[in-house]
Amino acid sequence: MRSVLCYGDSNTYGQTTANRPDDRYPHDVRWPGIVRAILGDRWLVIEEGLSGRTTVSDDPIEGAEKNGRTYLKPCIMSHKPLDLVIVMLGTNDLKIRFNKTAGEIAMGVGALVSDIKALPAGIDGKVPEIMIVAPPPTAMELKEWSGVFMGAQEKSRALAAEYERIAEAQEVHFFDAGLVVSSSDADGFHLDAAAHAALGKAIAEEIEAIGWGEERARAS
Question: Which segments constitute the SGNH hydrolase-type esterase domain (predicted)?
Answer without folding.
Answer: 6-198
